[in-house]
Design brief:
CATH class of the largest domain: Alpha Beta
Strand content: 15-25%
Number of helices: 8
Radius of gyration: 18 Å
Structural class: alpha/beta
Helix content: 40-55%
Order of helices and strands: EHEHEHEHEHEEEEHHHEE
CATH topology of the largest domain: Rossmann fold
CATH superfamily of the largest domain: Response regulator
Number of strands: 11
CATH architecture of the largest domain: 3-Layer(aba) Sandwich
Distance between the termini: 47 Å
Number of domains: 2
Strand order of the largest sheet: 2-1-3-4-5
Shape: elongated
Length: 231
């Protein structure tokens, strides 16, 4: 049975979600503020449902904490519906975003979709995975989901890590914004240019303080690529 951590301070909504998700054969552990969530994260879960407006510690800070410790799928549940709020959530590592009020049936479907992706990845034989990728002075370690530049660790969000991995694994290939969005966010692209632009810009700044194009090249009107390095 898949185990879900529900971080929601609205007691009535939390109770309703627990009751419904248990009826859908999920094991649900509810907590009601950010500090409780941090403590509970020492236990094992398969997925996290996270409200952004929490007491004591904000949902954004909880999401940052989560991504420092785990790559579990995170679905944000919030009343915040602006593009800016969604962009912040995705750039900090959220896997999905649902605006309240939402359909319980749709929530269950999205949970199962995230679990399928997560479990499919976790069942890949480790012997079939390249554990470390290198590009120039960058080293990408898939066992620890970490990136180092000249042996100094760079803190990336989940999406930044996935974008970098996509480009390094396919050197010389140009990815349009639509293709990159579909491969990294696993959703149909409907012109979410701002999400892609912000993610690429933040990744570039973390990788290089000197040149924005040192690693990721922009082909205007086409997309993004990393130049192929011949050995």
């Amino acid at each position: 049975m898949d185990r879900i951590l529900l971080i929601e301070d609205d007691l009535d909504l939390s109770e309703m979600l627990v009751e419904y998700l248990v009826s859908e054969n999920f094991d649900v552990i509810p907590v009601y503020d950010g500090e409780q969530a941090k403590v509970e994260l020492s236990n094992t879960f398969d997925l996290i449902l996270l409200d952004l407006m929490l007491p004591r510690t904000s949902g954004i800070d909880v999401l940052k904490f989560i991504r420092q410790h785990t790559f579990l799928p995170v679905i944000i549940l919030t009343a915040k519906s602006s593009e800016q709020d969604k962009t912040i959530g995705f750039n900090l590592g959220a896997d999905d975003y649902m605006v309240k009020p939402f359909s319980l049936i749709e929530l269950s479907a999205r949970i199962r979709a995230q679990l399928r992706r997560s479990q499919k990845y976790s069942t890949i034989k480790q012997s079939d995975i390249v554990k470390v990728l290198t590009y120039k002075d960058l080293s990408i370690d898939f066992t620890s989901f970490s990136v180092k530049k000249d042996k100094e660790k760079i803190a990336l969000t989940k999406k930044e890590f996935e974008i970098l991995t996509l480009l390094v694994s396919n050197q010389g290939t140009v990815f349009s914004k639509a293709r990159m969005y579909e491969l990294v966010w696993k959703e149909t692209y409907y012109g979410e240019e701002n999400i892609i632009n912000v993610s690429i810009n933040r990744l570039r700044k973390k990788l290089s303080k000197n040149s924005q194009d040192e690693y990721i090249k922009t082909l205007w009107g086409i997309g993004y690529t990393m130049e192929e390095i011949t050995k």
